[in-house]
Each structure stands twice: as structure tokens, then as C-alpha cells.
Write a structure and sequence with these properties.
The chain is built from seven helices and five strands. The protein is α/β, with parallel strands linked by helices.
């Protein structure tokens, strides 16, 4: 490895480490997220994950782990047929809001993930979730003034302009909330 590559990776890993460093406020938000998910389950609700691109992939992973391993009913809105049907009928910026209108019920919990915190379809879904009486957890990054950052009952913000660092932090924080539901950091995923 050359010195330039090593310097880049040392800096990159330090940025990621700062993002994941222990922080009492973040710990409290992770614990509150766990409590919100358990309350959602206890009242017969579902945790609904949404995101675009990489955040949609993270949403899928989180939904399956929350339901399979933590026994909290969860789903993710990223089925291609659902997206193309609702985007065709209502427009791309409204498809998630209409998916919630069709499928969500009061007492469910929406987890809205947007690296920029500015995706119109995510923001419209959060507004619809509020209208439908869902609790809302948001995850955003990039700029401190993004509109998603203050839109939830619980709000996570990654102070970085790197999509990979923001998305890794989002997944890590919510995976830690899932493991907090389970009650242990290491277990067989069967």
C-alpha cells in the first residue's frame, strides 16, 4: 500500500470512528427507539421502514432483522411493483405517502431514512404518517438544517457529507437498537 492510500484510509476510519463514538444523547435515542418499537409491537402495530437507494437496502435489512431476530413485526416499502404502480398513479414524490395511506394504521411506527434529509418522497411520507397517527423515527445526515432532522419523535443525524459514512452510521445505530431489543450483542441468527 502506498502512503497516499494509507493516509486516506486512516482519515476515513477516524471519521467513521467519530461517528460511532459513544455519546449519551445517541445512546438515549437508541434506547428510546427500542422502547418505541416494543410499544408498537405490544399494541399490535408494525414498524415500517422507508428509504431510497442505499437507504432502501438498509431498510430491507433492518425490517427482516427486526421481525425475524427481535420478534417485532416489521416491513419495508421497496417492492418494485408497488413503487412503479403508485409512482405511476400518484407521482414519485407521493408514492410512499400513498403506500402508507393504503397499508399503515394508527399505532404503527415509521422509520424514515434519507441521507440528505431532503428527499421529497420521504418528507411526504413523514407528513402522511403524522396525519395517520404513526410514531416516526428519522435518520438523516449531510447538513444540520435538513428538514427531516426535526420531523420525527426520535431523530438521528449523522454529521458527515459522505454517503457511505452516513449510511453506515444509520445502519449501525438501528442495528444496535435491534440488538438492544434482543438483549445481547452476539447470538445465532437462526
Amino acid at each position: 500500500m502506498n502512503a497516499q492510500d494509507e493516509s486516506f484510509l486512516v482519515d476515513y476510519m477516524a471519521r467513521m470512528q467519530r461517528m460511532l463514538t459513544s455519546d449519551a444523547e445517541r445512546f438515549a435515542a437508541i434506547a428510546r427507539t427500542r422502547d418505541l418499537w416494543l410499544a408498537t409491537r405490544d399494541r399490535g402495530g408494525t414498524v415500517i421502514f422507508i428509504g431510497n437507494g442505499g437507504s432502501a437496502g438498509i431498510s430491507s435489512h433492518l425490517a427482516i432483522d427486526l421481525s425475524k431476530n427481535a420478534k417485532v413485526p416489521a416491513t419495508c416499502y421497496n417492492d418494485a411493483s408497488q413503487i412503479t404502480c403508485l409512482a405511476n398513479d400518484y407521482g414519485y414524490e407521493q408514492w410512499m405517502a400513498h403506500a402508507l395511506r393504503l397499508n399503515a394504521k394508527a399505532g404503527d411506527c415509521l422509520v424514515a431514512i434519507s441521507s440528505s434529509g431532503r428527499s421529497p418522497n420521504i418528507l411526504n411520507a413523514v407528513a402522511k404518517a403524522r396525519e395517520l397517527k404513526l410514531s416516526v423515527v428519522t435518520l438523516s445526515g449531510m447538513t444540520a438544517d435538513n428538514p427531516l432532522r426535526q420531523a420525527g419523535d426520535i431523530n438521528f443525524w449523522a454529521d458527515s457529507r459522505s454517503y457511505n459514512i452516513v449510511e453506515t452510521a444509520h445502519q449501525f445505530w438501528l442495528m444496535s437498537a435491534i440488538d438492544l431489543v434482543i438483549g445481547k450483542a452476539e447470538y445465532a441468527a437462526s
